[in-house]
Amino acid sequence: MTPLTDTFSAAAPSPWKAEMWLRFRSLFWLKLVGTTAFTWIFFIGYFHLLRHPVNPVTEMPLTALDHLIPFGPHWLGAYLSLWLYVGVAPGLQRNFAELLVYGLWMGALSLSGLTLFYLWPTAVPPLSFDVSGYPGFAMLQGVDAAGNACPSMHVAAAMFTAVRLDDVLRRVRTPVVFRLANALWFLAIVYSTLAVKQHVALDALAGALLGLAFVLPSLHWRPTPYRVEALTA
C-alpha cells in the first residue's frame, strides 16, 4: 500500500460508524416530522380517554415494591426523557420500508393501549403528600395526570424502543458500550415511572408485557434486515 492509501485507510470511518451515520441521515426529516405527528395523535386519544372515561375508574393497588421505592423528584428528567428515547430507534431505520413497518407495529401497540384504557380506566392511588412544590411536578400533574395507569404506556413504549434499538446496535456491530447505554436508559425510564409516582409496580409490569407482546413479533415480521457486513464485502 502507498503512503496515500495508508493515510486514507486510517482516516476512513469504521463500518459501524459509517452505517450508523447512513441510518441517521436516511429520511431524517420524514422521521422527525413523522415521530412528532405520531406522538401528538397518540396524546389526543390519550387525553380524551383520560378526561372522559366511559367506565368507572379502577384504582390500582400498591405492592411491597411501591412502598419500598421512595419518591424521587430527581428522577423526573429520566421520566421525561422517554419522548427523546422513543425517537432513537425509528430514527435509525435504514429505509422507508423499515420505517413504515416500524411505525405500523408501534401504532398497533399504541392502539392496543388506548383500547385497554377505554375498556378499563385505571388510576394510581392519590399521594399522601403534595408534589406541586417540586420543579416540574405542577406541570406534570396538570398535563399527565395519574390516570390511564395500567398498562403503563411509558414502560410499553420504552420496552418496544429498547428491544428494537438493541437489535439495530447488534446488527450494525457497534461497541458493546452502546448496547449497555441503551439498557441503562431503558431501566432508568422504567424506574422513574415508579420513583415519580406516576405509576405503580403492576402498571409497569403490565406495560413491559404489552411492549414485549408487540416488539417480539415485530422482529420477525418486517423487511429483511440489512447487515453491516455488506459494507466490508
Automatic annotation (TrEMBL):
Residues 137-224 form the Phosphatidic acid phosphatase type 2/haloperoxidase domain. Pfam families: PAP2 (PF01569). The keyword Transmembrane helix applies. Keywords: Membrane, Transmembrane, Transmembrane helix. InterPro entries: PAP2/HPO. Gene3D superfamilies: Phosphatidic acid phosphatase type 2/haloperoxidase. The chain crosses the membrane at residues 27-48, 68-87, 99-120, 145-165, 177-194, 200-219. This is Phosphatase PAP2 family protein.
